[in-house]
Input
Amino acid sequence: MNAQTRVLLEESPVTLLREPTAAANETLVACAPADLVSAGAYCVSRGGKLTTMVGLDLEPLGRNLAVEFVFSIPAFDEFVRIRADLGSAGAYPALTPTVPAAQWYEREAKDLLGIDPVGHPDPRRLVLHESFPHGYHPLRKHVDGIAQPPIDTRRFDHFEVHGEGVYELPVGPIHAGIIEPGHFRFSNIGDVILFLDARLFYTHRGIEKIVEGLSPEEALFTVERTCAACTVSHGVAFASAVERAAGASIPPRASWLRTLLLELERLYNHVGDIGNICAGAGLHAGTSRGAIVKERLQRLNEALTGHRFLMGAVDVGGLRRDIDAGALREGAHELNEIQEEFTSYVRMLLATDSFVHRLQGPGRLDAATVHPFGGTGVTARASGVATDYRIDHPHAAYAMLAPRRVVETTGDVFARTMVRVREAEESFRLLSAILDGLPSGPVRGEVPSPPPLASALGYAESPRGANVHWVMFDEEGRIYRLRIRSASYANWPLVARAVPGNVVPDFPLINKSFELCYACCDR
Amino acid sequence: MGFIDLLLKPLARPRSTVGYPKKPADSVSTTRVPRFQPDLCTNDRSCLAICPADAISIDPLPGRGRRWALDYGKCIFCAECIRICPSLAIRGTGAFELAAAVRAALVSEHHFEGKGSD
Output
C-alpha cells in the first residue's frame, strides 16, 4: 500500500478495516453491508473505477455469503478491494444507482449466488435465463456443477417501447454465418433505432465452477480457453493472479516474452478487426487485404509458439517453454515486412473517401457515458477516456517499454478504427523493442503454493481492454473461487447505448467497430 | 497515377498465397500433433487421464495385452499428452496432412502383446 492509498483510507467517511494481501498494489478492506454504497461512491469520487465485483459463498468455511467490489485507482496504480460479509440475509443495498458500472456484476451475483442487491434498477436475470428454475444458484458451494437443473418455461422479460409507429425487430440468437449467439431486440420507428435490448449468455460454460478445487496449473488449461481471441490476456491475467497470491515473481525473460505474446495478440486482433470493419462498410478490397495481413500474423504466431492463437504458451510461473532464437530472428524480419504491408494497407483505406465517410458518425459514444459505465480498452479510448492497463497498472514488462497511450475523441466507428490503426503501429514498435532488448535466462520460475485462503487479482490489457481475474485459494492451495472479468463483459452494456439514434442498417457496422466477444461473457 | 500504372501495380506486389501442395508448406511449424512411440511407453496412463477430448483410449486385448489408440478425429492438438508423458513416448510433430476418406482411418493404434492388460 502506497502513501496515497493510506491517505485515501484515512479520509474515508466510512469505517474500512484493513486485511492483509500478498500483492503490493492491492488493499483489501472490510466494511458493513450498509456502508457499501457510501464506500463505493467515495472510491469513485477519489478517482476509482469499478473494475470487478465478486460474489463469494464462504459457508463451507463457517462464514456467510459475501461480496467484494474492486476499484482500480489508475492515478497511483492501486486496487482497493472492499469486502462486506452479508450475514445470513445475503442481501445488501445495490451500488448500481450510485455506481452504474456495477449493473451487470450485481445482476450476475444475484443469478449465480442468490446475493440480492436491494434496489437494483434492473432486477431481470442476466446470466441464467428464465429457463433456469427459481432459486437455482450454481456458484453456491452446495450445488453440484454437473447436475442438470429442470427446465423452466417462463417468458423472458425485455424492455418494450410503446407509441404510434413503434415496432420491434428481434434478431438472433442464431445468426447467419459462424458467429456467436446473442439476441438483439430493437425497438424502431421507421429505420431509426429507439432502443436496443441485448441478451447474451446463451452458451455460458460455468468455467468458474469447473475450476473450483483444481490446482492453478490444472485450471490454466481451461481458463486460457475462455476465449480464443484473447487467450494470452486471460492466461497472463490468471497466471499473474496466482503468482501475486503466492508472493512470487517470474524471471525477466518470461515477463518480456509474455509482453511479446500480449502484443502479438493485440496486433492480429486489431488488424483482423480493421478488416472486419471494412466488411461492415462494404469495402471488399479492404476486407481481403486485412485478412491477408492477419493471416501472416497468425502464421507468425504459429512459427513462434506452435499455435495460431498463441494458446498453451503461458504457464504459472512464466512460460511453458522458451521461444527458439532462430524463430525470434526470423520473426523480427517477418514483422518488418508485415509492418510495411500494414502501412500500405492503411494508406489505401484512409485514401478511400467513401470508406472514411461511411465510418464517420455512426455509433457515437461520449466520454460522459463511457466513464460511469466502466468502459475499457478501444471502446473507452475512442471516446476520449484514457484508460490503458499497460500504463495505468503496468504488468509483464510494460513498465520498461513505456507504451504510448492512444486516444481519439469522436467516439464513433471511425474513432474506434483509428485507435486500432494507431495501436497496431505502436504494437509494431513495442515488438521490435522487445525483440531488441529481450533478456536471456530461464522462462519459468517456481511458484510456491499460495497461503491458505489467500486471494489476489491478476490483469492484462487485452485487445479489447482490461481482462481482470480475481482468484481465491482454499487451505490446500487449490482454487476456491475464480471470477473472470473480461474486457467484453465491461463493454457490452455500452454497445446498447451507442446504438439508439442510428439506423438499423448501421448496426452491423457499429457492432463490428466494438468487436466484442460473446465467449468472454459465456465463461 | 495513370490507368496503366494502376493496372500494373498488383504485378509489383509479392504474392500472398503459397505454392502448397506443389511445394511443401514451409510456414507450418506446428509441434502439437502427437505421435506415439510404443517402444518408450511404460503404460503409466497419464495421457489417458489428461486428454480433455477423450481422444486417447487404452483397452485390454482379448487374452493378454492392450490396445493404445489415438483418434485424430477427436484430438484438439492441445499437446497436453506430449507435456505430461513421463517417458517421452508421445512426441510433438509438425505432421498436418491428416485428412482421411473415412473417420475410422483417423484412429492410430498400437497393440501391446503378452505383458498383461493393466
Chain B has a mean pLDDT of 86. The interface with chain A takes residues 16, 27-32, 52, 78-80, 83, 92 of chain B (CB under 8 Å).
